[in-house]
């Protein structure tokens, strides 16, 4: 069975969705850069090996990333899954896992890269918001897009309400993208774009949770 490694820094709700998804893969380890990440408890409860590599104990990004790669590689994972892993990664680390490391970002990229995406979406007055799964490249939040899920921004939404609506879709989208990868259908093509085999163009890599968008 293929194995995957999940990297977290906090709550771990996407990790929880991945664990519940019944993937044909073993989550070989969950690694956090923060000792207090709540997601570690989720992993332990599921009998999954955990490790903490506290970035504050390293002199440089390079040293941290080297230790992280060493830890990851002991498991020979098919895929490295960033699930709320709040670290900027060095180019060397990113290159090492090119085409086999993915991330989920809480916006419809390329809009709202970086932090505070829900607040910025509200400030901008967008009517549609969502989340994106993408391959990781050294372009922060700019890697090739694999799949997106869209949600409406509703009158009266505050940051918490919008975040919750997006998070619900994250929990659907991320396990789906991981499943495609494990099935060998999802690859990073030589032209630098994510390629999903066996899918009608665009048909499966967009989730629109609204059955009737006109009815909003
Ligand atoms: C999610 O919103 C994800 O999109 C972003 O960080 C958050 C992590 O949440 N990258 P959780 O730790 O998975 O609950």
What does this structure look like?
- This protein has 216 residues and is α/β, with parallel strands linked by helices.
- It has 2 domains: 1-97, 3-Layer(aba) Sandwich (Rossmann fold), CATH 3.40.50.170; 104-132 and 150-196 and 206-216, Rossmann fold (3-Layer(aba) Sandwich).
- It has helices spanning 13-20, 39-45, 61-73, 91-96, 117-124, 159-182; strands spanning 2-8, 25-32, 50-52, 79-82, 101-105, 128-135, 145-152, 186-188, 194-196, 206-207.
- Helix 1 (13-20) packs across helix 6 (159-182).
- 38% of the residues are buried.
- The model is unreliable at 211-216 (pLDDT under 50).
- The chain binds 5-O-phosphono-beta-D-ribofuranosylamine.
- Residues 8, 10-14, 39, 83-84, 104-106, 131, 167, 170 line the site of 5-O-phosphono-beta-D-ribofuranosylamine.
In short:
With 216 residues, this protein is an alpha/beta fold. The chain contains 6 helices and 10 strands, in the order βαβαβαβαβαββαβββ.
Keywords:
eight-stranded mixed β-sheet, Rossmann fold, 6 helices, globular, binds 5-O-phosphono-beta-D-ribofuranosylamine, disordered C terminus, 2 domains, 216 residues, 10 strands, alpha/beta, two-stranded antiparallel ribbon
Residue runs with pLDDT of under 50 for 5 or more positions = 211-216
Helix content: 25-40%
Task: Calculate Rg over CA atoms.
Answer: 17 Å
Assign the CATH superfamily of the largest domain: Formyl transferase, N-terminal domain
Q: Quickly count the domains.
A: 2
The proportion of strand residues reads: 15-25%
- Order of SSEs, N→C? EHEHEHEHEHEEHEEE
> How many DSSP H or I helices?
6
Query: Class of the largest domain in CATH?
Result: Alpha Beta
> What ions, cofactors and ligands are bound?
5-O-phosphono-beta-D-ribofuranosylamine
From the spread of the alpha carbons, the general shape counts as: globular
- Going across the biggest sheet, name each strand in turn: 3-2-1-4-5-6-7-10
Largest sheet: 8 strands, mixed
Number of strands: 10
Could you report the average pLDDT, rounded to the nearest whole number?
Answer: 94
Which structural class best describes the helix and strand composition? alpha/beta
CATH architecture of the largest domain: 3-Layer(aba) Sandwich
CATH fold call of the largest domain: Rossmann fold
Terminus-to-terminus distance: 43 Å
């Amino acid at each position: 069975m293929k194995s995957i490694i999940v990297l977290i820094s906090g709550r771990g709700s996407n990790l929880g969705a991945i664990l519940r998804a019944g993937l044909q893969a073993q989550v070989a380890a969950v690694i956090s850069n923060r000792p207090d990440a709540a997601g570690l408890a989720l992993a332990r409860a599921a009998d999954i090996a955990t490790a903490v590599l506290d970035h504050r104990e390293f002199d440089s990004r390079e040293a941290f990333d080297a230790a992280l790669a060493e830890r990851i590689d002991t498991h020979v994972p098919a895929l490295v899954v960033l699930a709320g892993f709040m670290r900027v990664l060095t180019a060397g680390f990113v290159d090492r896992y090119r085409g086999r490391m993915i991330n989920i970002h809480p916006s419809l990229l390329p809009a709202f890269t970086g932090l505070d995406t829900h607040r910025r979406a509200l400030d901008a007055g967008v009517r549609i918001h969502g989340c994106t799964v993408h391959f990781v490249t050294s372009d922060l939040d700019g890697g090739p897009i694999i799949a997106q899920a869209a949600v409406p921004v509703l009158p009266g939404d505050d940051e918490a309400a919008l975040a919750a609506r997006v998070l619900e879709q994250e929990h659907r989208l991320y396990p789906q993208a991981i499943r495609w990868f494990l099935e060998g259908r999802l690859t990073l093509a030589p032209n630098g774009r994510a390629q999903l085999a066996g899918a009608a163009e665009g048909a499966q890599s967009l989730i629109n949770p609204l059955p009737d968008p006109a009815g909003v």
